[in-house]
């Protein structure tokens, strides 16, 4: 099948491996070097291929060491520019060729973010990080930039000696650059096949701390110890995920906490999850956000959507697995509570896009549509709602999690479509086909707006938030002294966030007020710690970032960078800021 977001023809050839030799230039804000693509022919008399590029300077191209003719086609608004390569020989089906491209990125490459020292925690060294999802890897290197293509990679990266490089791969040593003693070459290997959007690089004044037998946390020294404490339960989450979904195949699971100016929530890069520093609450109360990124190690990274039209296969299953981890580590009520919040996020996205907007389809058409413009909570929460609905029909969480685990095992290391997923669903539950046939699949998959079935969630944990918010909203100014710190301290961090969101929602909807429900603060409120609520916790949603303005009784401050909501939803709002609530982890 064709990928509407790529120039490549996937019926003629496929990339099996990348070998990268890169030099990071902070003065010019470019990466220069060479990529060697091991390409397998899928047809006889194969002699030409097309790669995706975006704003790249192509210096030369060779095939098995022989010069190859190449040309750049017409630039497309969001797909970039096709790189057409003609080989100096023909290949038969099944044969391989190594295509080498020498190139340089643009200072404005959409995948690369160059930070000045002032934008970092340490204020002394520059910083580089990449973000390739969904279709931005082509601005960092020429490639078949589609999630349908999976390959391994090896990389050597030359950086200034005062800086450290890390990538979405296993570290493989480092050495002084033989061509420049003022630089260090870091080596990386990724032996597990993965799509191009998961290639990631970070260069900065980094340090690391061990947080488990297969995990380290990376950050600038100003944040690294806080991060090590915050994410010390990572191994427990990994083991819980393995019990649910099967073995973790990626070897290392590290977490990189980016500088305070990092504007995203998180990204599930293999071996190296990116995380916002706003998760560092100081009491591990937001560390469960990592559960979403961990879940992507199975759904998204190991089993991947074939094109971005099937993005819900990545995110819906990841949210489902994330909440199953929460169920194991917290309770079923906690899973239900998070699912209720997700349903509200979905309603917000549908309201923002419009109930008849085809981009609110679970499986939208992306023909001539920038996939960045399609990102929202829809694939996450409409996808989860479908899986939860099927869970109820098929016999409960244990039964349906058995299907999810089997689906992961069957399609591991490959990319899939919705039809392939659905066909296997019917195969796995072959004794319940009559029930599955009653599902309105067209309404779920291809109809815009909210799902055809609204789940009935357990409201126990939400009821406490609603009751307290109503108490605040109905109180008169003279009643404020009756509020106590214990009112909030009886709530969990997630309940406090929901409580504040309810207040903010009411304030926004009130025609009488655009700021606070009451003009003065309760007598026991404290700016530095409002009822035990540390300001960092507000970053779990984007709406409460404005709570300092909208909910003055608690006088909670917040910075301007969005944080992560349920786990990996960083990708959506983090990177693209299209949904009205929550910064999504990708």
Tally the helices: what do you get? 16
- Helix/strand/pairing category: alpha+beta
Report strand order across the widest sheet: 5-4-8-2-1-11-14-13
Unreliable runs: 513-584
Q: What is the count of β-strands?
A: 22
Cα(first) to Cα(last) distance is 24 Å
Give the helix level as a range of percent: 25-40%
What shape does the CA trace take? globular
Strand content: 15-25%
Largest sheet: 8 strands, mixed
Radius of gyration, in Å, reads 24 Å
- Please tell me the overall pLDDT: 88
Structural descriptors:
about 575 residues; alpha+beta; 8-stranded mixed beta sheet; 5-stranded mixed beta sheet; 16 helices; 22 strands; about 25% strand; disordered C terminus
What can you see in these coordinates?
One of its GO terms (biological process) is proteolysis. Zn(2+) binds at residues 292, 296, 315. Residues 15-198 form the Aminopeptidase N-like N-terminal domain. Belongs to the peptidase M1 family. By secondary structure, the chain is α+β, with helices and mostly antiparallel strands. It has 16 helices and 22 strands. Strands 5-4-8-2-1-11-14-13 form an 8-stranded mixed sheet, with no helix packed on it. It has a 5-stranded mixed sheet with strand order 16-17-18-20-19. A 4-stranded antiparallel sheet has the order 9-10-15-12, with no helix packed on it. A hairpin with a 2-residue loop joins strand 16 and strand 17. It is globular. The protein starts with 12 loop residues before the first strand and ends in a 10-residue tail after the last helix. Mean pLDDT is 88; it is low at 513-584.
